What does this fold into?
Amino acid sequence: MAKETVVIIDYGSGNLRSAAKAFERVGDENNLSLDVNVSNRADDVIQASRLVLPGQGAFGDCMDGLQSLDGMVEALNEAVLQKGTPFLGICVGMQLMATRGLEHGVHAGLGWIEGEVVPLKPDDPSLKVPHMGWNELVYPSANTQQDNRHFVLRNIDSSNNFYFVHSFVFQCIYSSHLLAMAEYGELIPAVVGRDNMIGVQFHPEKSAKAGLHLIANYLDWKP
It folds into this structure.
């Protein structure tokens, strides 16, 4: 079996070591022929079997970091939009898929999923921002049945909790792109996606068994 190459993109943002270790562990535990490569090179992105874009910090700073890498945004567009390479965005890496972000001004995103990243403003004043802690996923009414859920979310139910830390949320234009939510005073976007791309607001690499399960699903996903 040919090795799959998972490229975790290094653009100066995100917990790269934790993400790489989580993918390596899933590969080992599931006897997958997997090469996990942390890279800041556009050529590696083009050649990857799967792509992971982590991220932490401000939206604009993260976009600047991507754009500072020679050919990186062009390589991402080619790989994801033209070649159909499976893509996973994590935290701010997920938010960068949006049309724009409204953190410290207005900043253009990758524009892959129509919507904008806006401040988290819970109705309950006792709830602090950033939202920091463990939450279960809540599925839109159309996706409550396992058979209707996205492949990457299969067999993930209310007994599974994921670790969140964020102050902004991704508001999708189209409800079909919102795959799962979390409860924080109100329902907030937790998973978005379309076609060969999916993004999670939480950190699967910090979410123990549930996070490893989601990573395993992603590695098994053939969009």
